[in-house]
Design goal:
The structure is a single chain. The chain has one helix spanning 2-25; strands at residues 33-43, 46-57, 60-71, 74-85. By secondary structure, it is α+β, with helices and mostly antiparallel strands. The protein has one domain (2-85). The protein has a four-stranded antiparallel beta sheet with strand order 1-2-3-4, with no helix packed on it. The radius of gyration is 19 Å and the shape is elongated. The termini are far apart.
């Protein structure tokens, strides 16, 4: 049973790695692909902004997702980001 769990985990981890390697190998032939989505809100209780961005192209790939909210109780926010670049 333990060997089966190890095999499943190894398989689950190797698939994204294989896909990422294939994407990096063909990246030099890829066009630039960008995605952005943002929103903001302002009202009597405060203001906030949220932004999501993704990029893939010959120079690399990146992702960002973040938000900031401010109101009478203070300010809060957070973000997640990731980036990879490749060279010839």
């Amino acid at each position: 049973m333990r060997a089966l769990h190890r095999a499943l985990v190894a398989g689950a981890l190797s698939l994204p790695l294989a896909l990422g390697t294939a994407a990096a190998a063909s990246a030099h032939d890829a066009p630039n692909v960008d995605f952005e989505k943002g929103s903001f809100t302002v009202g009597p209780g405060g203001a906030g902004v949220k932004l999501t961005e993704a990029h893939f192209g010959p120079d690399g790939a990146s992702f960002f997702d973040g938000m900031v909210m401010a109101g009478p109780g203070g300010v809060t926010g957070g973000f997640t980001g990731s980036e990879v670049g490749w060279e010839d």
